Amino acid sequence: MIDAKRLFRVLKLHGLTLHSDALKFLLNELSTQPTLKIEDVVFAIKNSIDRSKLKTSVVSQDALESALNTLLSVSSDNDYQSIQVFSAFEQPQLKFHPSTKTYEVSVDPTRKLHAASKHRLNIFRERFSVVERRVRRHKTFSKPVTATIGSDDFVELCKIESLLGVTGTKSVLGMLGQDERKRVYLEDLTSRIFVNIEDAKFTNGIFGGNCIVLAEGQVIDDVFHVDTMGFPPPELRKDSLDVLSGIDSMGIEVSAQQLVQIEQLEESNKIDSFVILSDVHLDNPEVMNRLETLFSGYEPFCPTLFIFIGNFSSIPVGYGHGVESLSILDLKQNFDDLATLLLKYPQLVEHSQFVFVPGPNDPGAPDVLPRHPLPNICTEDFVRKIPSAIMTSNPCRVRYYTKDFVVMRDDLQQKMSRSCLTPISADEVHINVSKHVVKTIIDQGHLSPLPLSARPIHWAFDSSLQIFPLPNALIMADKCEQYQVTYADVSVFHPGPFYVDFSFVLYHPSSNTTESCKIE
């Protein structure tokens, strides 16, 4: 049994001090609860500090009780909640502290949809800073400790403000842009320089405005003549998790002991599967017929999760005339019809979960990301009849035990191709363009690496579109044909528009693999 002096020293090593009443309370808890470990208590207290529950490292009894209650409640939650869905509007931010080179999870309850102009300025500064930190952690751009260790492979990155007046080949990290005269430039946090890319060689990817690139070249007459240009290297998920040092990007407090329990639960559920469909037009009778076939086929197996991604109607609500028009009440009726269909299969309703992600043509704020869930007027009756249904934002995060998935619906392939400032290096056949899109998104660490003119974003919620650390799987629903690509250990796939050929994807989280399926 740990005594008061030893407990005090252990906490002191972690920069924590307890009030005398809190110290007595903790000693009593450790003696009466044998499963409670001091390292888990330290983790819970430090997480409380990171999450702004505590304002000081001197811990009171009330603050300690709050941290312990959170710690002890997490285990039971995770035992039964294998699927957790996170809305983009609820997702916390990862804040980096340059002085300590550490991260913390930050929740800002004051964020608004109509944010102040300072948030717009911060969008691209923050995007650039996130990528720059990642690049400088990479072995190629991380300066060796001594001149003899890996010095031949080291590439020194220059600040753009230091380029003028220098000679020779230099490497820079900068954000692409184009002025009103269509002149291309690179800029970082220090300065801007116009570039000549006529003779440059490009790696794979779609180089559009606001993309962050690595460029090598030389300055001639105050213009940076680029020889080669490519994207920053990605950072594997496992390496990013090491950098975060136990900080959970979703703000979920889980101790080491609880993590072991969750991993054991995940290991015992290897047969779990997800059914993922996109562009499920509920106003199309043929789509409803095929959904009935889908539900009847899967009822004996009860997949863990069904993910339905919009658009949920063939035409936007409010468009069209006469019999071809669609009102908000029509969409509500379509969801009521879907509920009636699902209730024919009670095993699915009881044992599966259903997540609904809106598309660009569904009701809501037009052409702005992230998008709110479908309006309650359309879905409240559906959710009442199907309690296992979750209406969430676009994009959203899904956590399955220890694995993370991102779900996104946008016409990205078309938008990114239109915003490209350089020729795509490979033949523009379907699969190659898909690979370019995937590489661009992963390397940029952002779900919408586009100018705000091409894809408006709620300024205060841009952080919810960043993908750091990388997810295990990225579901990029689009209006193009189905594709599946694996890059940087991330399984990226588009299930295809269901209304076109009734195709969908069956995903196996235990193996991170997909099956392309179609209802004939």
Q: What would you note in describing this structure?
A:
This is DNA polymerase epsilon subunit. Participates in DNA repair and in chromosomal DNA replication. This protein has a 6-stranded mixed sheet with strand order 3-17-18-19-21-20, with helices on one face. It has a 6-stranded mixed sheet with strand order 16-15-14-13-22-23. A 5-stranded mixed beta barrel has the order 7-8-9-12-11. The protein is α/β, with parallel strands linked by helices and 520 residues long. The protein is globular. Mean pLDDT is 88; it is low at 426-431. The chain contains 14 helices and 23 strands. It has a domain at 4-77: Helicase, Ruva Protein, domain 3 (Orthogonal Bundle). The protein starts with a helix and ends with a strand. Helix 4 (61-80) packs parallel to helix 7 (256-267). The longest helix has 21 residues, at 117-137. Helix content is 32%, strand content 22%. The chain has helices at residues 4-13, 20-32, 38-50, 61-80, 117-137, 237-244, 256-267, 285-298, 328-342, 346-351, 376-385, 412-418, 430-444, 498-501; strands at residues 17-18, 58-59, 83-87, 93-97, 102-106, 157-158, 170-178, 184-187, 192-196, 201-202, 212-220, 223-230, 274-278, 305-309, 353-357, 389-391, 396-400, 403-409, 473-477, 483-487, 490-494, 503-508, 513-518.
